[in-house]
Amino acid sequence: MEKPAAGNRKFGIGLLVLFLIQILPVFWAPDVNALSWAYVQSLRFKRVENYFYTATDCSFTLNIENVPPEKVTVSVNDVPEGVSFVGSSKIAYMPYSNASSEQYGTTLTLSFRFDQPGVYQIKAIDVRIDETYAKIPVDAVEVYEHPNTVRPKIFLSFESPNVQVSGKKITVNANEHIIFRMLIQNAIQVLKFDWNLPEDSLFKRLDYTDLSEKVNPGDFTPEKIAIALFDWQPLKPGTYDFPEFDIVATSYGGIRYDVASPDYTIEVLEAVDAPVNDEQDKGLFAYAFVSPPSSQEAVQEKTVEEVPVDRLYELYTKERHSIVLFSSAHYERMALEEELGFSSIVHMPSMPLFILVWVLCISCLVATIVLFILKKIPHASVCAVLFILLLASGILYGHQISKKYGIYEGGEIYSIPESAGGSGIDMPKGSTVLVKHSAAGWLYVVFNDTYGWVPEDTVRLIQ
Predict the structure, then answer these.
(1) 419: burial class by Cβ within 10 Å (0-12, 13-18, 19+)?
(2) What is the pLDDT of residues 115-134, one digit of tens each?
(3) Distance CA 369, CA 378 (A)
(4) Contacts from 357-362 at CB under 8 Å and sequence distance 24+?
(5) Among 161, 174, 248, 251, which Cα is nearest to 215's?
(6) Closest CA to 136 of 99, 101, 88
(7) Strand order in 72-75's β-sheet?
(8) Which pTM does this prediction carry?
(9) Which residues contact residue 269 at a Cβ distance below 8 angstroms, ignoring those fewer than 6 apart?
(10) pLDDT reading at 300 higher than 50
């Protein structure tokens, strides 16, 4: 009787071993479709269009391999100021033509709209891929005003080494040549190009390029395109307006515009070492016989007067610690920025004014309580209304006073907080920037309609 029982036990153990051999590999075998963390970390939303424009849907796309659309979800929780999330879509993604149905992935597309032109960095997007949760970064982009609505603009590049340019003011000595190049942006054709000759000077065009030969109407470019080179030689000291140009150009939207002339003031100083001709007195026009600088000299960088960053910082600091109506620093700062051709905020939030509002607010609160105790209800009601108004003003002004402003030392603005993330856009030295965020030695700043990252040591925070 014992032998059959022992045989049965061995038979049972054998069946159990055979069962385990068959079933355990199902649990132990690696999932060939499992996503590696390194692969998830390599994913990035990439821009779809070559250029992003305001008032249009702008898309970013992400391809995920071996994960079907039903196993991918996305959540857009936060976007920068001036950006709105339009929506998302998912479609099947086939990485190569002979892929099987099991190798299909997902193409995830996100659409946004941008209210203003500038450089934008959208925060990383929350994406669930199968059972993995990750934050997928998004390409930084520069957004341009829509070509169908933007007007053509004229820019100048001064190429004479003797010319000093500070903001919208040009300084040069009499008889010296001002070599400047005219560039146009957001235009596909120049229909009319004339100018009025300035007084007491010689003025001629050295070169001209037909814009239609450089621009394809169907291909937008944000680049400024050189169309003409001029030689202007003032002969008499004085203050002059920049020569008036009569320019008509066609925009990308097919609309003809009168393009405004550049707004500069020219200050011509007394001539230095004026040449003398012993054989003939040429009078006022003697300087006209001085040769312009050589072509090699003409392409040198223009001499730009140093922007007084220290003075701007000092004035802004004084303005922050004074009340505007009684502060000479406010008016001096605005006059200096106007002279330099800078756009500025209306006024720097005042710390003393902020403290004064809260002192008055607390005083009204105390007065309200005392008057109610003394049963002087009408007077207490007036104080209560004043308290509420001052409380609201204090809260709103506190939001303004909490904003961080700084003076930028000048240089390139970056699309991401990395030295390799240059955007190719320069902010002028002395610009007043609003600091929005900081990260590892970088500051995210706003200047007019431009957003981007700059090194922390290039911004002098106004305390």
Answers:
(1) exposed
(2) 999 999 998 899 998 878 88
(3) 12
(4) 357/390, 357/393, 357/394, 357/397, 358/390, 358/394, 360/386, 360/390, 361/387, 361/390, 361/391, 361/393, 361/394
(5) 251
(6) 88
(7) 72-75, 125-129, 132-136
(8) 0.48
(9) 171, 172, 173, 174, 237
(10) no
